[in-house]
Design goal:
Blueprint (H helix, E strand, L loop, with lengths): L2 H23 L6 H13 L1 H12 L6 H16 L14 H14 L3 E10 L2 H13 L4 E6 L9 H12 L3 E7 H5 L4 H10 L3 E5 L15 E2 L2 E5 L3 E5 L11 H6 L3 E2 L2 E5 L2 H17 L18 E8 L7 H12 L3 E5 L7 H12 L3 E7 L5 H8 L2 H6 L3 E5 L4 E2 L3 E4 L3 E5 L5 H5 L1 E9 L3 H15 L1 E3 L1 H4 L4 H14 L3
Parallel strand pairs: 2-3, 3-4, 5-17, 8-14, 11-12, 12-13
Antiparallel strand pairs: 1-9, 1-10, 2-6, 6-7, 7-9, 10-17, 11-15, 13-18, 15-16, 16-17
EC number: 2.7.8.-
Subcellular location: Cell membrane
Main location: membrane
C-alpha cells in the first residue's frame, strides 16, 4: 500500500471517528437547535467544525469564575434568607409570585422596594444624568459597562468621575476587554482613566502574554452605575457616542437608540451585589455590599428584583424569566429587543400567547447592525406573523438597541439582555423586574413613541420577500445556534 493510500485511509478513518464522537457527545446538555447546527458543521466540515467546537462549542463553563459565581449566589441567598418573598404593600398575582420565587431560587436576589427616578433614552441626556449623580457622590462610585470610550459625548460623565476622584471619592470601573478595545483611541482612553485616578480593570481580559486567556466568546455585557448606595442606573446604554465612534455612521445618520432606568431605594443594594461579585472576580478585592433589607413599598414606588444571568448561571435565569412572563400574559405583551433570535421555548411561548388571544407586539430595528444576527432574526418573522404577532420595524438607519418587556399592565423587565442565544448562555447580563408602581406605565408610554415612528410588517409583505434573502436568513439562523 502506497503512502497516498495510507494517508487517504487514515483521513477517512479519522473523519468517521470524529463524526461518531460528535453524534454521541455534541447533543449532551444542549438545546436541539444548537445541537443540529454543530452537528451539521462537524459532519460536513469536520476539519473546521471540530477545532471550532473545542474552542467555543462546549455548553459547560467551569473554572474559577464559575466557582466564584456559585459561591456568591450561595452567599446572596443566605444574606437575604430572612426576607419574605415580597415587600409589604404589594400583592402580586399567583403567577407573578411564582416567578419571583423562581428568580430568587436561581439567583439569590430578593424582591425589594425601589423608586423610578427617571427613564433615559437620549444618549447625551443619559450621560448628563449619570454625571449629575456622580457629582453628588460623597463616598464611592461603581461603574460597569460592556463598551466604553471617552469621546465628546461621554466627556461629561468621565469628567465627573475625574472630579469625584479629586474630591476624595473612590471610583471603581469595570469594562469588557473585547467589547471596548475596538473603538477609537483605546490606548489613550486607558491612559486617561489612570491619570484621572480611577481604579479601572478589564472584564474577561484576553492577554496571553500575561497568562490571561479565556474563551473569546464569553463576554460581560452588563451596563451598571451605582453611587453611594443611593442611586443606580440599569439599562442598555453603553458609554460611547451613539454613532459608536464611526464617521460613516455619523454621515448617514446611523445612531443607537437605547433606554436606561435610574432607580433609588433598596434595589440599589441588589445592583451593588452584582457589581461586587464581578469586581471580586476581576480583581480579587472584596467590596463590602450592604446587607439587604425590605422596606414597605409606599404608594408610587415599585417592587423591584434584580435578575443576573450569564455563564456562571447554568439555569439560564434570563431565558426562564422571559418565558415565564410571556406565559403569564392575559391581554398584551410588548417586547423590544435589538437581537431577537429566540430558542424553541421562547418562540413557542410567544406564538402560543398570540394563538390564545393575547396581543403580542415586537419592536425591532428595520435594519440590524450585525449581519448574521440580523438575518437570523428575520428567519423567525414568518412564524411570528402567521401566529398573529404584530412586528413593528423601527426605521433605518437608526439601530433600536433598547431591551425591555411589559406584560399586561402588571409587570415589566428592562436591562442589558437581548433575546438571543448569546445572551441566554454566553454573556453576563442583568435585568430588572418591576411591578406595583409606575415602571410598567413608563415603559408602555415609551412603546407609544416607538410605535409612532415605526411601520408594521404584514404577512402579505413578508411573503413577497425574494427567495435569495430567505435562504441567507435560514443559513444565518443555523450559525446563530452554534453555541
Amino acid at each position: 500500500m502506497g503512502w497516498e493510500q495510507v494517508l487517504t485511509t487514515t483521513y477517512l478513518v479519522g473523519e468517521y471517528v470524529i463524526k461518531f464522537f460528535a453524534v454521541g457527545t455534541v447533543p449532551e446538555n444542549r438545546r436541539p437547535a444548537s445541537s443540529s447546527a454543530w452537528l451539521l458543521l462537524i459532519l460536513f466540515l469536520p476539519v473546521v467544525g471540530l477545532p471550532l467546537y473545542w474552542l467555543i462549542g462546549s455548553p459547560y463553563v467551569h473554572g474559577r469564575r464559575y466557582r466564584i459565581q456559585a459561591q456568591a449566589n450561595h452567599i446572596l441567598a443566605g444574606r437575604s434568607a430572612h426576607l419574605p418573598l415580597v415587600p409589604e404593600g404589594v400583592s402580586p398575582s399567583p403567577a407573578l409570585t411564582g416567578l419571583l420565587h423562581q428568580n430568587r431560587q436561581l439567583t439569590g436576589m430578593p424582591c425589594v422596594d425601589g423608586r423610578v427616578r427617571g427613564l433615559h433614552d437620549d444618549a447625551a441626556e443619559t450621560y448628563a444624568a449619570m454625571a449629575a449623580a456622580v457629582d453628588r457622590a460623597e463616598r464611592y462610585v461603581n461603574v460597569e459597562f460592556y463598551i466604553m470610550a471617552w469621546d465628546d459625548t461621554t466627556d461629561v460623565f468621565f469628567s465627573a468621575l475625574q472630579k469625584a476622584v479629586a474630591r476624595g471619592v473612590t471610583v471603581r470601573l469595570l469594562m469588557d476587554h473585547l467589547g471596548s478595545r475596538k473603538y477609537p483611541d483605546w490606548k489613550g482612553f486607558r491612559r486617561r482613566l489612570t491619570e484621572a485616578g480611577i481604579d479601572w480593570h478589564l472584564m474577561m481580559p484576553i492577554n496571553p502574554l500575561e497568562g490571561r486567556w479565556r474563551r473569546p466568546d464569553l463576554r460581560n455585557h452588563r451596563k451598571l452605575l451605582m453611587v453611594d448606595g443611593e442611586v443606580a442606573f440599569v439599562g442598555s446604554h453603553n458609554l460611547i457616542d451613539p454613532h459608536y465612534g464611526s464617521a460613516n455612521n455619523a454621515r448617514i445618520g446611523r445612531k443607537w437608540h437605547d433606554l436606561s432606568l435610574e432607580v433609588s431605594g433598596e434595589v440599589v443594594a441588589a445592583v451593588e451585589a452584582v457589581f461586587a461579585t464581578d469586581w471580586f472576580i476581576e480583581t480579587g478585592e472584596l467590596v463590602q455590599a450592604r446587607r439587604p433589607v425590605q422596606d414597605p413599598v409606599d404608594p408610587g414606588e415599585n417592587a423591584l428584583q434584580i435578575v443576573p444571568s450569564g455563564p456562571g448561571f447554568p439555569t439560564e435565569p434570563n431565558l426562564r424569566l422571559f418565558v415565564s412572563l410571556i406565559h403569564m400574559a392575559h391581554e398584551k405583551i410588548a417586547i423590544t429587543s435589538p437581537y431577537f433570535v429566540p430558542d424553541e421555548s421562547l418562540l413557542a411561548a410567544i406564538t402560543t400567547a398570540s394563538y390564545r388571544g393575547v396581543r403580542v407586539e415586537l419592536f425591532v430595528g428595520e435594519q440590524a447592525d450585525q449581519f448574521l444576527v440580523g438575518h437570523a432574526q428575520r428567519s423567525y418573522y414568518r412564524t411570528l406573523l402567521e401566529a398573529g404577532v404584530h412586528i413593528y420595524l423601527y426605521p433605518a438607519p437608526a439601530v433600536l438597541h433598547a431591551k425591555y418587556l411589559t406584560v399586561d399592565d402588571e409587570v415589566a423587565v428592562i436591562g442589558s439582555s437581548n433575546m438571543d442565544f448569546r445572551s441566554f448562555t454566553l454573556t453576563y447580563e442583568v435585568m430588572l423586574l418591576g411591578f406595583g408602581g409606575d415602571l410598567v406605565s413608563k415603559l408602555q408610554a415609551n412603546d407609544e413613541q416607538y410605535r409612532a415612528v415605526s411601520r408594521e410588517l404584514t404577512l402579505e409583505e413578508w411573503l413577497q420577500e425574494p427567495w435569495r434573502r430567505r435562504y441567507v436568513d435560514n443559513v444565518c439562523r443555523l450559525t446563530a445556534a452554534l453555541m
